[in-house]
Every structure is written in structure tokens, then in C-alpha cells.
Specification:
alpha+beta; Phosphatase 2c, domain 1; six-stranded antiparallel sheet; 7 helices
């Protein structure tokens, strides 16, 4: 998962398909939903919002999926996450076009520039409007191209990777005090779930922070692999073991895995907004025309 531009390990002319499903829920306690998620398709010319579920070919287009969890008083947290997602739609395709024209030097630069721009916008809004003072947002983003997923991350939303052969891995680091303690080996998953400072963010976009240091990287994908982007509300209601069980079990005519994840998490906890977005590289070839697209 190096931030440098990786080498494609497979035949780049053979682009796999991609399948996704997403759901967000206010939960059982909060009055409004400060989580927002994005499914986006773009190429050198067009940008298309995608529906909550769909399937498409990675040939000729890039796909971006993201989850943002807002924070702030009144409705400013909800506004912050929506602004964050809106800026991705506006800025990433433009940066991609510049990169393709040789005016940028790789995916890591594009993602770092994107996160920096969103951070600056949220800070500016916080300074300009009293009701937006201190608002901020997490952001976990996956950018899919043939054979590679590039990611950028700030906050305590998460990106998980479930390879075809192997166990569930948390790709991103929680930018919290508890996340730091877990990385040091001082807390296990159960202890982290009940720690009094589990929600104390050390980094977020906006939120009055002068600087942010996004985590960026890349993961090679192959048919049979799955990825999950989720807000911290999902983690409050599900252990990692159960998350892996749900993601690995194929949905045959029933609710999507994202729906099962969110519904079960809300039933178990529901104290926070809860969002899950699953992206799968299907094993078998499927119709390559995109479904679930909506006009931007």
C-alpha cells in the first residue's frame, strides 16, 4: 500500500467489472443524518452520479466511492459532510484530467491536493459564518481504476479490504487517540469499543485544525475481492468478525450486504448515524453497461 504510483500487476487491457451497494441510516438516537456517501463515475469528459446499487465495467472510466461523517453544532455537521462530498465531485475529475494531460505526477498528489482543498473550504466557511464555526468532517475515499484501488483518508470512518483469499483488513488508520493506542498494541478491539476517548478525533477536515495529514495509499485488486467504506457508527454495532461474515456471504436475491450491515448495526446499537458502502470485483463476467446511473 505504497503512496507512490504502483505498477499494474496484470494485463491492463483486460478491465474487470465492479459492483457496489450502499446505505445510510440516521440511527435510533440522532435527529438528523450527518453521514453522506458518494458513488461516482467519470472519464475525460463526463461525470455521472451513481445509484445506491449497480454494476459497471472499469474499462474507459474511473469510479470513486466515499463516506464522510460530519460534525458540528445544529445542522452544520450535516452541511460539512455534504460540502465534502460535493467538492469531490467538482475537484477530482478536474484533477484527473490535468494528471492525464501530464500536469500532475500521480494519484497521491491528486488525492493530497483534493483533501487540502476540501479542508481549506471547510475552514473558510467556518470563519465566514457563525453557524458553521468549528464544523468539520471525516473522509474515506476509494478511487477505482483497472487492477488498482487508490485511497485517501482522514478521521475515524474506515476502509476495509477483504481479499478473495484471506481475512478482513482495516486499510485505514483511525485518527483518534484510541486508534493510536490500538496501533501500539495497548488496546484490543473490545477495549477500544468501550474506551471513554474512542470518539476523540486527532484529525478531521475543517474543525478548526490548521493542518491535516491525509493517509494515502493503493491496494491491488483482483476478481473476488471486496472493499467496505463505513462511518464509525457501523463499528459501534458490529465486531470486525461479523462484518467479514456479512461481506463474504453473497446476496442471492435478498437484501444487499450493505443493507444487512447497516440494519444489523442499527439494531445492535443505533446511537450514531450508520453508513456502509461495499464495492466488489465480481468473479464472473457480467454485463458491462452501468446500471443505477443518475444525471449529475
Amino acid at each position: 500500500m505504497s503512496p507512490s504510483e504502483p505498477q499494474v500487476p496484470q494485463d491492463p487491457a483486460v478491465a474487470p467489472d465492479l459492483k457496489w451497494s450502499g446505505l445510510t441510516d440516521t440511527g435510533r438516537v440522532r435527529l438528523n443524518n450527518e453521514d453522506t456517501f458518494l458513488a461516482l463515475k467519470f472519464d475525460g469528459h463526463d461525470v455521472n452520479y451513481l445509484g445506491k446499487e449497480g454494476q459497471a465495467s472499469l474499462s474507459g472510466a474511473d469510479f470513486v466511492f466515499a463516506v464522510s461523517d460530519g460534525m458540528g453544532g445544529a445542522h452544520s455537521g450535516e452541511f460539512a459532510s455534504k460540502i465534502t462530498i460535493d467538492r469531490i465531485t467538482r475537484l477530482l475529475p478536474r484533477s484527473f484530467r490535468l494528471s492525464a494531460a501530464g500536469m500532475a505526477s500521480g494519484f497521491s498528489d491528486v488525492l493530497l491536493e483534493l483533501f487540502s482543498a476540501i479542508h481549506a473550504d471547510l475552514l473558510s466557511l467556518g470563519r465566514s459564518y457563525a453557524e458553521c464555526a468549528g464544523m468539520g468532517a471525516t473522509l474515506s475515499l476509494c478511487w477505482f481504476r483497472p487492477h488498482w484501488m487508490y485511497f485517501g483518508h482522514v478521521g475515524d470512518s474506515r476502509i476495509y479490504y477483504l481479499p478473495r483469499d484471506g481475512g478482513l483488513t482495516q486499510v485505514t488508520q483511525d485518527h483518534t487517540h484510541v486508534g493510536w493506542l490500538r496501533r501500539k498494541g495497548e488496546l484490543n478491539e473490545r477495549e477500544a469499543r468501550t474506551h471513554p476517548r474512542r470518539n476523540a478525533l486527532q484529525q478531521a477536515l475543517g474543525a478548526g485544525n490548521q493542518y491535516v495529514e491525509p493517509q494515502v495509499g493503493a491496494v491491488a485488486h483482483r476478481p473476488g475481492d471486496r472493499f467496505l467504506i463505513c462511518s464509525d457508527g457501523l463499528i459501534e454495532g458490529l465486531w470486525d468478525r461479523r462484518i467479514e461474515e456479512i461481506i463474504r456471504t453473497p446476496a442471492l436475491g435478498g437484501p444487499s450486504a450493505a443493507t444487512i450491515l447497516v440494519d444489523e448495526s442499527v439494531q445492535n446499537s443505533g446511537r450514531d448515524n450508520t453508513t456502509a458502502l461495499i464495492i466488489e470485483i465480481p468473479m464472473a463476467a457480467a454485463p458491462s453497461s452501468a446500471r443505477g446511473e443518475a444525471a449529475p
